[in-house]
UniProtKB/TrEMBL annotation:
<dbReference type="Pfam" id="PF05057">
    <property type="entry name" value="DUF676"/>
</dbReference>
<dbReference type="InterPro" id="IPR044294">
    <property type="entry name" value="Lipase-like"/>
</dbReference>
<feature type="transmembrane region" description="Helical">
    <location>
        <begin position="9"/>
        <end position="29"/>
    </location>
</feature>
<protein>
    <submittedName>
        <fullName>DUF676 putative serine esterase domain containing protein</fullName>
    </submittedName>
</protein>
<feature type="region of interest" description="Disordered">
    <location>
        <begin position="405"/>
        <end position="427"/>
    </location>
</feature>
<feature type="region of interest" description="Disordered">
    <location>
        <begin position="210"/>
        <end position="233"/>
    </location>
</feature>
<keyword id="KW-0472">Membrane</keyword>
<keyword id="KW-1133">Transmembrane helix</keyword>
<keyword id="KW-0812">Transmembrane</keyword>
<feature type="domain" description="DUF676">
    <location>
        <begin position="100"/>
        <end position="310"/>
    </location>
</feature>
<feature type="compositionally biased region" description="Low complexity">
    <location>
        <begin position="408"/>
        <end position="422"/>
    </location>
</feature>
<feature type="compositionally biased region" description="Low complexity">
    <location>
        <begin position="222"/>
        <end position="233"/>
    </location>
</feature>
<dbReference type="InterPro" id="IPR007751">
    <property type="entry name" value="DUF676_lipase-like"/>
</dbReference>
<feature type="compositionally biased region" description="Basic and acidic residues">
    <location>
        <begin position="210"/>
        <end position="219"/>
    </location>
</feature>
Length: 519
């Protein structure tokens, strides 16, 4: 065994042992809310608990059908409403906007709505910096339905999210009956999978004169005849964004590759969500191939995936966040964002790529075959998702994660810090395959991720850093380095909203409005 191999093994083991205890401890706190430790943690945290937040939504049948007015007025720490004309906090009749843009932010595993505060603040700032547009309103909402409920599986969380989004859309449509309504979703980590699952249950046509009885029964999908276009508003899917989301699951995509036999007990510890992520259920297969999930995802004007690179993300490594697979020939074209003087990307954004939309191949997926060959399984998943057409943003947060001195600078003579890889010998390469990207950015780069200049080991906490996770004071302090990434994401989302919905050309949108109303 060479010295380099031995050092690599020691580093892998050290990182694993460093990260595993807090992960298990966090799981313990959530699974035993009556514990003294949990109560102490909650008392030390100045934010409301999950129970206090959920208490605002008292109707167990459909907790999101009647409380929006109260929540938008009194709970501004969780709900933000931006009106370009007069900054009112709730939808209103007098301004009669032509378009209302609804943006829903979805937190991840063991998170809460505050997790998305950085991106929410960035979105509000980005909207305020734009020219006043009296015909466009914004609703920026952090979903609350999965607060304290992230262990019962992707299906359960996705259904709750769909119910919350449906209720919010009804509230917006009924408050603005003459407006066109767009929907954008930004899901972080597990929240991105919740969002993909929720798409199958979102009501893309909202009745304008819905009765109270229909409101009460809206939490469960019915097969009634859809309302006529003259009495309804169609929701226009605009942007679908994920940040560090495990699109391929975490089986064979853990930071340190685990045998299948070891994955099973870990999945059991993490309850149904763990079984879904480690492929001990068929949820991920269904979401990748079932038209009920793929078609609404394809209907969005743009799909965007942010992924940490260079081994900085312990929970969601690059291959699953960017859905790259070995031997995948999915084409990725480099997008030049350097000319955008109004929204220059931060130094942490390494590369922006785009996959062209292509018709999916004939579905000859064979679970038994691919179970024997996981590489084939992930290759098919990767290609299936890439054919939808995605923008992928690669983020390097090595300079913003905690560092620990390991040995002197003489030992680290190679200087394999971030500045070395920032030489970008590949910067002039205009096209990549997923296989090439995986080799360059996603695997075999543990030393690059962990060994910095002067022999410092970087702890791979990029999962929370990239989104500037603000779910509590400690996380907000530790992840401040990711705020420029969220500022850039928010500005990009607002610019895309302008471009895709005809911000400066409201007359274009009147056609959509009239189309919804014509008999």
């Amino acid at each position: 065994m060479t010295v380099a191999t031995r050092n690599s093994m020691v580093l892998r083991l050290s990182v694993f042992l460093y990260i595993l205890p807090p992960v298990l401890f966090a799981w313990y706190l959530q699974s035993t809310p009556e514990s003294t430790l949990f109560e102490l943690t909650r008392r030390l945290t100045p934010f409301p608990s999950a129970e206090q937040r959920q208490a605002l939504l008292s109707d167990l049948e459909d907790p999101f059908s009647h409380d929006w007015q109260h929540l938008f007025q009194d709970q501004k720490s969780f709900y933000s409403r931006v009106n370009m004309e007069n900054d009112q906090s709730i939808p209103h009749q007098p301004s009669s906007p032509s378009v209302v843009h609804v943006i829903v932010l979805v937190h991840g595993w063991l998170g809460n709505p505050l997790e998305m505060n950085s991106i929410k603040e960035s979105l509000v700032d980005a909207i305020d910096q734009q020219e006043k547009a009296s015909h466009h309103d914004f609703v920026v909402h952090s979903a609350v339905c999965n607060d304290g409920k992230t262990t019962d599986g992707i299906v359960a969380g996705g259904k709750r999210l769909a119910a919350e989004i449906n209720s919010l859309l009804r509230f917006v449509v009924h408050g603005n009956p003459n407006a066109s309504v767009t929907l954008s979703i930004c899901g972080n980590s597990l929240g991105g999978l919740y969002a993909r699952r929720a798409l199958a249950d979102i009501d893309w046509t909202v009745p304008l004169n819905e009765s109270k009885e229909n409101d009460e029964n809206h939490a469960t999908k019915t097969t009634t005849t859809p309302p006529s276009s003259s009495t309804s508003t169609s929701i226009n899917p605009l942007l679908f964004v994920t940040t560090a989301t495990p699109h391929l699951g975490v089986s064979q995509h853990t930071y340190i590759r685990l045998p299948r036999a070891v994955e099973y007990p870990i999945a059991q510890i993490l309850d149904q969500t763990g079984r879904d992520l480690f492929r001990f259920s068929n949820v991920l297969e269904e979401m990748t191939y079932d038209d009920a999930y793929i078609e609404p995802l394809q209907n969005f004007q743009q799909r965007i995936a942010y992924a940490n690179v260079y081994g900085t993300d312990f929970q969601v490594p690059t291959p699953t966040a960017a859905f790259w697979a070995l031997d995948s020939d999915s084409p990725h074209e480099v997008v030049d964002v350097s000319d955008d003087k109004t929204n220059n990307p931060p130094d942490t954004v390494v590369l922006t790529l785009q996959t062209p939309q292509r018709p999916p191949p004939k579905n000859n997926y064979n679970i038994q075959h691919t179970e024997q060959d996981p590489t084939k399984r992930f290759q098919e998943w990767s290609q299936q998702l890439d054919r939808l057409g995605w923008t992928k943003v690669l983020v390097d947060v090595r300079e913003h994660v905690p560092q620990v001195s390991v040995w002197s600078s003489s030992t680290s003579s190679s200087g394999d810090d971030a500045s070395t890889t920032s030489n970008k010998s590949w910067s002039n390469k205009p096209k990549w395959t997923a296989h090439e990207l995986l080799k360059e950015f996603g695997t075999g780069l543990l030393a690059t991720a962990t060994l910095g200049f002067s022999g410092k080991m970087r702890i791979p906490l990029g999962h929370t850093v990239m989104v500037a996770n603000a779910k509590d004071k400690l996380n907000k302090w530790l992840t401040i380095g990711g705020k420029p990434v969220m500022d850039w994401l928010a500005a990009s989302m607002v610019q895309s909203t302008q471009r895709l919905s005809g911000w400066d050309l409201p007359d274009k949108l009147t056609g959509k409005i009239e189309e919804n109303k014509k008999p």
